[in-house]
Fold each of these.
Amino acid sequence: MRYRVGLETRDRILEATRELIGERGLAGATVKAICERAGVLAGSFYNQFESKDEAVLTVIGESIRAVEPPADRAQDIASLVDAYVAFVESQEGMARVYLEVVVTRGIQSGELRGRLMRHHQRRVERFAAALASADVRDPVELAELMVAALNGLAVHRLLDPRFDLRGQARRLLDLRPAD
Amino acid sequence: MRYRVGLETRDRILEATRELIGERGLAGATVKAICERAGVLAGSFYNQFESKDEAVLTVIGESIRAVEPPADRAQDIASLVDAYVAFVESQEGMARVYLEVVVTRGIQSGELRGRLMRHHQRRVERFAAALASADVRDPVELAELMVAALNGLAVHRLLDPRFDLRGQARRLLDLRPAD
DNA sequence: GCGTAATTTGAGTCTCCGCTCAAAGTCTAG
DNA sequence: CTAGACTTTGAGCGGAGACTCAAATTACGC
């Protein structure tokens, strides 16, 4: 992985992996399919990556990082919800993987699972912080509820592309605990 | 499939399929694993079922039917939510399949997908009816939101068994649109 | 240019999966 | 008891997927 051709090959493989995950999900991104799309043979793939999981993990890691809002600046709930909606709508493939990993037991890489779980945890914490500064009771519990509900909306959106994710997310935001 | 031994074999196969789906998810319920657990060889399996999908579909169909509340009697939202929680908690394996099918693209049987989708649809309709008779604005939209949110809570519960599904579902129930 | 390190090639291995089938064995109605 | 229908056996097929490797080719610092 030091000559320029090698780095270019690596990039093409990652690009192909990203596309295939988006189009066909995790299961559809086989090494064979990735290699075909990248215009590369299996040997080259394994010259660049230790395993299929390494390539998949790299792609997902990049996606997660790209989506994560800056940690330092506090945000209100509305913009956190908007960010979530934007994530699902702009990176449908990754959103699908996110949910696929959560739901499917015994998914390939435990590391992938751990990484996504941490991402989820951070999201809950952000929501909790936003709710706390809005003086809501039980901010952590409500944050868990909201993030879980948003995941549910995302699931719905994945199975029905006409589903009004943004609208329903706003509706969720308008719900208040009845006293 | 007419002698008693055959029917018993069939039952053992279905039982094994049910258990394996619950323990390892759809992907873990391979024909080999099912046959081992049922104490049967592959040939017997295919003497009873046309395909693996037929066995899986049978098991899931039975589960869905067992969970479906009686259609004639109208119910309020609280008991619908309770029924959903009970479904997820008592039939974790089936709940997992339900979500797995929704999330995973290109899942095996299109029929399985269709069947689960119809089940989902009926649930939304029930919720909408209950909300309508409670004089809520936009009952259909709110029903979609609630069912989607419940699905999200179920996802959370699947990945963290300590998650307080019942409590969070009640909390969801307490949320009201702010005017 | 040269030499070496990096890269590519592509046939091939290994494993797992769903599924088949002919032969042998087991029921059960009459 | 018997004949015909049903069931079990278990080796094995075809295909897909992840991954390997020795030999050939290519890049590029010097």
Note: Chain B is about 75% helix and 0% strand.
Amino acid sequence: MHKRVTLADVANAAGVSRTTASLVLSDRGDELRISEASQQRVRRVAAELGYRPNVISTNLRSGSSQTIGFISDTVATSQLAGDMIKGALEHAHRNGYMLFIGETEGDLDEERRLVQAMVDRQVDGLIVASMFTLERSVPAGIDPGAVVLLNALPEAPADAVIPDEYAAGRAAVETLLARGHTRVHLLGAGPGRTDVPGQTVAGSERLGGILDALSDAGLEPASGRLARVWLPEDGFAAMRDLLDTGVRGEAVIAFNDRLAFGAYQAVQEAGLRIPDDFSIISFDDHQLAGWLHPALTTFALPHYDLGRRAVEILLARADTRREPAVERLPMPLRVRGSVAAPRA
Amino acid sequence: MHKRVTLADVANAAGVSRTTASLVLSDRGDELRISEASQQRVRRVAAELGYRPNVISTNLRSGSSQTIGFISDTVATSQLAGDMIKGALEHAHRNGYMLFIGETEGDLDEERRLVQAMVDRQVDGLIVASMFTLERSVPAGIDPGAVVLLNALPEAPADAVIPDEYAAGRAAVETLLARGHTRVHLLGAGPGRTDVPGQTVAGSERLGGILDALSDAGLEPASGRLARVWLPEDGFAAMRDLLDTGVRGEAVIAFNDRLAFGAYQAVQEAGLRIPDDFSIISFDDHQLAGWLHPALTTFALPHYDLGRRAVEILLARADTRREPAVERLPMPLRVRGSVAAPRA
DNA sequence: AGTGATTGCTAAATCGCGTTAGCAAAGTCA
DNA sequence: TGACTTTGCTAACGCGATTTAGCAATCACT
């Protein structure tokens, strides 16, 4: 382990004071009238010695650590977090920031400890990402102005970034209507406005958009099947149930891709085909969606953009003071092969 | 933004010197004979003011930052990284360490920049995780003794943690043989020892284990199909090819679950059934594996343990000096429904 | 020659904490 | 009473950088 080269080492080797070396290396040499000769000497020596400023030290003085904390209630489940982190990471690093990662498993005590640990390390901002919660408050123990919620709605006014689930819900209906469908079955939630599992953002907002768009067209859901959880087996069961009613050639909105996957299995095991016997449209753009036969038409969660945008907001706020706001990012439609016209 | 409470604030409020306050709060009060009265006063004031030590400052003095860097070449693709990070995260946090995350996309320049940025922040150790590479060297710019490779073999002696792919390969064969299979088809690699895509750890080690175990039983692969990439469509194509040979009732080892998924599709679209017409065993335990009908029997990548173990090694080394070593973690078999006895 | 401005640089304080060395007061002992 | 020990606490330095205030030497001008 080499001893680190400090500014003092550089200054000594260059025969100047630490002050001078500091000024030169922070490009304030001209401003403070350090001679060209000295400047070159300092720079050369710094390069030769491989000098790297000790960020910790700078942090201590400045109070800022060029670091952002990213706390999520889950990293592993659903690759959501993965891409979100990636978006956050890249944008942060591009601006000279590093990311601390933490995971709470939904445990509020753990969240408190993590926030604390990050504040102790002087993070400049905090991104709090949620997979499970619809509404939440900004965690205590940190300047609320330095927090951005990700995929969760703030209870009190605060900055937040979420996918525009509502718009995607509307667009799902519009896509089907445009193809000529009028009978739309819901898989995972509905038909009533409150028939939603748990308290996820996705559920209620998607359903709201769907119902509003149907209503605008003077329609109602042809049927709805609430599932407490949204796993393939739940989609399988719900689709079996729908198949048992004898319906064919109509449209299905699955509330996420995992449900849709279960629905595929039910359709295929019944000897039927997508999209001939059922048009299916869904949400998430799970990795799986592109692998199915036919590939699944679905609205993509803009994971990467969510993470990126959260960092942008955080960094922007350092400069400008603005009113906190909830920002909704569009969920782009991935048109693949699971939607066709209704059966004649 | 509240002004932070510093040790000096506590000392003032308690009417003692900073030294005294420091001693009390680091539990050296008895040792250094601070009166019980003063100790209680300091503690009470600290609690009242909500004093939290500034870790940055401690770091500057100690040279250690209670921080570990985690650099991976991909976070998003395959939830591998997700669970690895989770394992690392939890174990690190449990020991009072935080994790910096970085991602290189396989770009060596980016890797250099990230290592640099982390060293600048005085990380105590570095975990370098790889999804793409078989062999790699420890990155430059940091004490090689403070690095643990994850899912990559070191070129020169260094600490590394990898899944025991070779043993899993052997075990896959042994599982099939135990069920009575003697004809084993390989999907994704083989039949030759060098028929491996790219340079992933998984490919060559799994194949090695498979071929050795077959050889021990006096067997050879019944067939092998190399795929350059291991996506479902590649598994689909390879399985179609196998189906065209007319084989039925034999065993298939898919080199990962995505290939196996493609194989499922081919089998089902041919109107055949798993495990009646084909026994399939695979590797990874992708989330998908449990969703298939029948659920896929597969060897799980011990993501969580990999991450956790890497941190353990890193932290342990701070204490004991040992020879660097490559540690292989077992890939547990998830027995599900895709393996049956060969057709009579 | 004397005053003032400019040039080129540096000493010292600061950020928040830990640590070493040591000091004053009280207590103990012969 | 004087020498020594114990008790209870603190002054001061250092970690590595930045920043403010200012100093000595040279130059410009009347």
Note: The two ends of chain A are 76 Å apart (CA to CA).
